[in-house]
Each structure stands twice: as C-alpha cells, then as structure tokens.
Amino acid sequence: MSSTRPGAESGRRRVVLTGFGVISSIGIGAAEFTESLRKGRSGVSPISVFDVEGFAHGNGCEVKGFEPEQWITRTPVQELGRASRFAVAAARMAVQDAGLDLEVLAGQRGLVSVGTTDGESFELDQLVAAELADGPENMDPEIVRRVSAARLSTTIAQELGLSDIEAPTIATACSAGNYAIGYGFDAVSSGEVDFALCGGADAMCRKTFTGFYRLGTIAPEFCQPFDADRKGILTGEGAGVLVLESLESALARNAVIYAEVLGYGLNCDAYHQVAPKGDSVAECMRIALDNAGVKPQEVDLISAHGTGTKANDITEAGAIREVFAEDTPRTISLKSMLGHTMGAASALGAIACGLAITHGFIPPTINHRRTDPECDIDCVPNEAVDADLRIVQNNGLAFGGNNSIVILGKYEGSAA
Asked: How far apart (Å, rounded) are the C-alpha atoms in residues 254 and 353?
C-alpha cells in the first residue's frame, strides 16, 4: 500500500468506519454478528414470512428475534415496511455503536444513503394479493403508504432527527450497498458532509424468491459457493448500516476505528440481465485498487459476491485470478451463512470485512465439501482462521452488470 493516500495532495480527508448496525439471519448487532462469523453459523430455516406452498423447496435466511420497537422509538413502527424497519433499526444501532450524540449530529451536515434491490416488495406482495382477492379498491391504505423505496433512507433521517442531509435510496440491486458506501466515501472525503450513514437493506419477498426459483437458481437446502456440488442461492434479508466520518473527526472524539475506507470502484457493462461478464468484473477490481492506491499483492482477503451459482462463481473466480494471478488471496463467501440478502449483501460484507480486520480473523465459507476446479481459490472452507488483515476487498456484483468494489484497510495511526 502506498504511503500517501490517494487525494491527499488535494486536501481530501481520510475516511474511517466507526459504527456498525447489523440486522441479519445470523445475528443482530455487531457483537453477535462477529461471533456468528467466527463460528460459521448458518442462517438457514424454512421460509415463514410468505407462503411457499407449491414450491418444491422453500428454505431461506430469515431474520429471527428482531424487535423493531427496541430501536425505533420516534417513528410509529406500523408506518414502516419490513425493509425500512431493518434499515432504521440498523442505522440507530450504528450511531450508538459509534458513540455519536444525536443532538450533535443534528447540527452537522450529513448523508444517509441506503442501497436496495427490492425496496418494499414485501409490502407490494401483500397489495397484489389483496388486489387479486378483493380488487384494488380493497387494498389497505396503510400498506400503500409503506411501499415507497425512498423511505429506506428518509425514515432514518426522520427517526434520528436529522435535517441538514441528503437521503437517497440507491437501487442498483445486489451491488447497491457498496454503491452507497462509495457515495458516502466521496461525500465525507471531499468535506461535503461531516458524516454519512451508508449501507443496504432488503426484506425477503415472494416476488424475488419466485423470480430466482423460475431461473432455476434456488438451492433446495443450503448455499455452497465455489463448491463443485453447489445447487444455487438462498434468498435472505436484513440490513447493514455503517458510520463513515473523517479520520480527524474520529480522532478528535477518541472513537473506536474499525477500518479505513481506502477507495472503491464502480462500472456497469449492461452485458446481460443476469449473466456476469468476467472482463468487466476484473476491470471494476482494477478501478477500485487504483482508486485506493493498493497493489493486488497487498490485498489479504477478498469477500466475494459468491452467490453459489455456477455462472457467478466461475466468472467471479476467473476475474479474481485475472487480476491477482499468483497473488490471489483467500476468497470467501458470506452468502454461505447469510444467504443472498440482495441490496444488503455488500453492506453486510463491508461490515464483516471491518470486523475481520478489527478482530484478526477470516470468516469461513461454510457448507463446503470440494472446491470446483474451475474456481481454483482458497475459500477458507468451514472453519474460520486467525489472520492479521491489513487490506480487504469487498465485492458486489448485480444484475445488468452493475459492479461495485470497496477496499478497506486497517487503521494503523497517523492522520497525515
């Protein structure tokens, strides 16, 4: 890693992560999430949030034990869709984890950016069912008011009492969490804002499950990324929200620093609706590494998109080998534990990377039996390993060729 951060010459500020909010099928909150990552816990259970009658199999990775009222205190919970509840709770959790005073934040310029794939499609499922059963005139108006995807971000601002902010919802599907983090990185590093709450959120819904099922990509039991016997994805849900602030701000208030955001890369090849393009994925990695001022051989770990489908796994592994060659680092897939959390996936991946850097371990790729020879990577099968991680790459790949890569580094002192 170069001794001078990119942009330092032009006065751009270094950006660090100081708070994490996690809602997931393997844990709620950073501490529980960390323990589950280290132990390789599976979030798989039979789907209960919607009817799976008629499908040959119906496992997913649902959030269990989530009590929104524990975190959402200013906004009536019944006014929020399932995904917004996840997002708002994760945001308050992240602010508390960072030790930030909401009264202080209310007087600062800020950004709230949340990525999503489905927005509030869980609510839309209910409305469609009501329309088919009883006609559109009998749709529940309260559910109608919950369906706007914009509320994933705006309700965070409402709940936390923030007014001097921009609050976009970024709908770049399964790479949206990294898009949101990149947006926050630019805003904080340029001085445009004093802080950013960034991440992703999605709730499981019948529409998305059915779509992947019709594509033939839903696994019957569990997800096995990079495994020769893999059978596809499992849909999941949850939210991950990260607090981004300048290094100077974090040091001034003696905050715990999980990791530093070194840079990111985005591209969109529009090659195919669902098929990834290897050359484009590789190019996005190069963009991210260049933006971060990092050489491939300096990367210690890659948190892959790793869906557990043949098309994704082989394409992504090939792109990684193209960029890293003989220096290919260990490459894991959190979806083996979390399922595919859609717009939350790369946000939860970034949080996992920050926790891995902080606590010195590599989470495993669980459910692994034998690596597909066409992948040819060390996916850290089934058991976590201790590791001193300095630089970690977090991949997010989405339908339509929307690729996003975030590079995180260990903070090792010096505000220069």
From this structure: 22
Q: pLDDT tens digit string along 102-155?
A: 999 999 999 999 999 999 999 888 888 888 888 888 888 888 888 889 999 999
Cα-based distances in Å from 269 to 95, 264, 275, 291? 36, 17, 11, 19
Burial zone of 388 (CB within 10 Å; 0-12 exposed, 13-18 middle, 19+ buried): exposed
Which 8-state DSSP code applies to residue 1? -
Between CA 390 and CA 410 the distance in angstroms is 5
Angle (nearest 5°) at CA 352 between 389 and 400 = 110
For residue 332, give the 3-state DSSP assignment. strand
Distance of alpha carbon 202 from alpha carbon 81, whole angstroms: 10
Helix or strand holding residue 292 (H, E) = helix 278-292
Give which of 408, 403, 407 is closest to 174, Cα–Cα.
403
CA 101 and chain centroid, separation: 25
Tell me the sheet residues that pair with 169: 114
Claim: this prediction has a pTM higher than 0.90: yes
Tokens for 178? 């990294």
Burial of 299: CB neighbours in 10 Å, binned 0-12, 13-18, 19+:
buried
Active site positions, annotated: 174, 305, 340
End-to-end, the C-alpha distance of the chain in Å comes to: 15
Which of 200-232 are b and which e, b meaning 16 or more Cβ less than 10 Å from the residue's Cβ? Answer: bbbbbbbebbbebbeeebbbeebbbbbbeebbb
